[in-house]
Amino acid sequence: MRMNKFSVVWIALVALPCHAQVTASGANWGGIKVSFDARIEPSPNPATDPAVLRQLQHDIHGGVIVDQLVHRYWQDPNQKTYLAYDLSVEPGPNPRFLEVRIAPLSLTPQQMVNHGFPQTWTRLSLPKYPVIPQVQVGDTVALDLMVNASTGQKLVDYLTLRRTGSTTPARPHDFSLADAGLYVNRPRITVNQRLVPATAHSDGGISGPIVWLYLQGVGRFVLSLLPKPEFGLKGTGEVSGNVLTFHDGADTYRIECSGQIAPGPGLYNIYVFHDRGWRPVGMDANEPFILGSAPLEALIRK
Asked: In this structure, is residue 93 part of a structural domain?
C-alpha cells in the first residue's frame, strides 16, 4: 500500500478526537469508495497527567453525509465548533491514476442544523483545499487537519481508496464487536415491493457502525447491527449479503445494494430507530433521499 502525505495544518486550541472510521462513495466515483480513519498523532504518552489525557481524548463525534456530494465532518459540543470538508474522487489525466479533491463544505449552516450542528456553533475552515493527484486504488492519503498548539499533537484523517465489492451468505445472530459496520452502497429501496424512485439510480454509498437514511415524506431511519435499546432502537429486520430488510408498522422496507452490506457471511439482526419528524432544511429541503453515518449520540436525543 502506497502512502501519499499531504499536509494541511490548522492551528486550534480544541482537544483532538478519538480514533473512528467510516467509509463512503459518491455519485460518479466509478466503483471507488474511500475509508476515513481519523487519528491523534502522536498518541498520548501513558505517563501524561490524567486530567490532560481526559482533555485530549474527550469524544468529538465524526461522520459523513452523502447527498449529491460526500461531506466529511467532526463536531465538538464542548467548544461549540465543527470542522468539515467536501470530498470528490475524479479520474486523473493519466488513466492509471485518480485525483482526490478536498473542497470547502457546501452545506449551509442552516442545512447543518438537522445534522446536529446548531447555527450558534462556529464552523471552522481548512486554510487550504488541495487537489491530491496520482492516487491509485489501495493508496492512503494522510491529511493533517489540525494541531493542538499546547501539546503539538495533530488530527490526521487517513483516506484509503478501495473498490466496492460483494460476497454472500443462515440463522440470525446479534452482531459482535469483532465485526465491522454496515456498508450501504448504491442502494435501491423498495417499500412494500414498490421502488422508491429517488433510489432507482443512486450511485453514492456510506459505511460505519451506524448508518442512517432519509426518505422524503417518511423521515429518517437509523440502522445498527448492535442492539441499543437505550436509544430506542428495535430489532425489526435482518441483513444478509447485499440485501437488508426491516419492518416499520405495516410497511416492509427492502434495501438492495451493489455489494455486501454486513461485514461477513451470515444472517444478522438489524436494529432500527424511526425519526418520523426529521426533515432536511435549506437547499436540501427538497432532497428526496440522503445517506449518512454518525454516532447514535449525535442522531438520537435520549
From this structure: yes
Q: Are the C-beta atoms of residues 15 and 52 closer than 8 Å to each other?
A: no
124-172 per-position pLDDT tens digit? 887 678 889 889 988 998 887 777 677 677 778 889 998 875 333 345 6
Question: Is 145 within a domain?
Answer: yes
One DSSP character per residue, 10-68 reads -EE-SPPPPPEEEEEE-TTSSSEEEEEEEEEESPPPTTS-HHHHHHHHS--EEEEEESS
Residue whose C-alpha cell is 490532560: 52
Q: Is 18 exposed, middle or buried (0-12, 13-18, 19+ CB in 10 A)?
A: middle
- Going by C-alpha positions, the residue among 109, 53, 38 that lies closest to residue 284 is 109
Number of folded domains that form the chain? 2
Neighbouring-strand partners of residue 25: 205
Please tell me what DSSP assigns to residue 235: E
The secondary element (H helix, E strand) that includes residue 1 is none
Residue 269: inside a domain, yes or no? Answer: yes
Let me know whether 101 and 159 are in one domain: yes
Q: Global pTM?
A: 0.64
- pLDDT of residue 28 exceeding 60: yes
- 201 CB-near residues (< 8 Å, 6+ apart): none
Alpha-carbon distance of 117 to 109, in angstroms, equals 8
- In the numeric block, the cell 419492518 is attached to 247
Structural contact between residues 209 and 222, judged by C-beta atoms closer than 8 angstroms: no
| 190, 133: one domain | no
**Distance, CA of 136 to CA of 226 (rounded, Å):** 34
Longest dimension (CA), the chain: 59
Residue 1 lies in a domain: no
Of 4-8, 156-160, 286-290, which gets the smallest average pLDDT? 4-8
Q: Supply the pLDDT for residue 92.
A: 79
Question: Omega into 42 within 30° of 0, i.e. cis?
Answer: yes
Can you tell me the distance from the alpha carbon of 206 to that of 189, in angstroms, rounded to the nearest whole number? 15
Range of 293's domain? 172-299
